[in-house]
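User: Transport permease protein, Serinibacter arcticus:
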Amino acid sequence: MTDRVATPSAAPLPPGFERPGRSRGLVDVFGQRYLLRLIVRKELRVRYQASFLGLAWSYVKPGVQFVVFFFVMGNFLGMRGMLPPFAVYLFSGIVIINLFSEILGNATRSVVANGALVNKIYLPRQMFPVSSVLVALVHFVPQLVVLLIGALVAGWRPGPVELAAALLAVMIVLCLALGLGLAFGAINVAYRDIENIVDLILMVAIWFSPVLYPIATVRDTFGADSVLMRIYENNPLTIAVELFHRAFWWPAADAAAREGAIVDHVMNRGLVALAVCAVLLVIGDRVFRKLSRNFAQEL
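Assistant: Predicted structure for Transport permease protein:
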């Protein structure tokens, strides 16, 4: 009769230690905030290395974008007279769309761009898309300051509804962009065509949300009760843009310009959109966690 060899079980870890290689998703990221700060600093340093203007590009890029759209849409298509003050209407939409575009674009490329770190050490891989969010917020704040100054000059006075609308819009964009960025960033490791697809999405995003024109224009084209209009109105990106219009443009606009310019019940729609985007964030994190097991081999 032979003796059975007992299989040794995993030894218990001392207090304060965790077994490596087990991912808890985004929870792990915020448990290692110091490492996250290092990655954000690295991203900013690499981006502006040997750059003459440095962080000033946060003003230059949206500034040029604003001037071009203001000249074309405001003068050629008459939006200056239709949506006064059109400068505030236009720039508030540009600011929130740029936040979405930067997060999603950089998050999609973040894992591939940091392939050397992925192959060398174990760390929560979600840190790379999350760092894209923080870098985008660094660029978002200067644009928001410019928007605030312009809105104040135009006659804007903040109130509880305006502040709540702005905060709700930012939360929708952060959840939506990070959720999509996690999913696309993970898939992009195996299929690099994804980043090109995302570029196409971002290219048309500003045209398929009411940044350059009022929602009434879309309603007149699609029909108020059409399926396309309902899809357009309930698109989280449309709602985020309209919330920024409600926050910064609406108080300074006259009654005639307000009529039909913002989607109905935008605050209620915003709460629903935030819940949907939160679900998308959870799904994106699950997709990322599942696909991250093969990152080292793919990279």
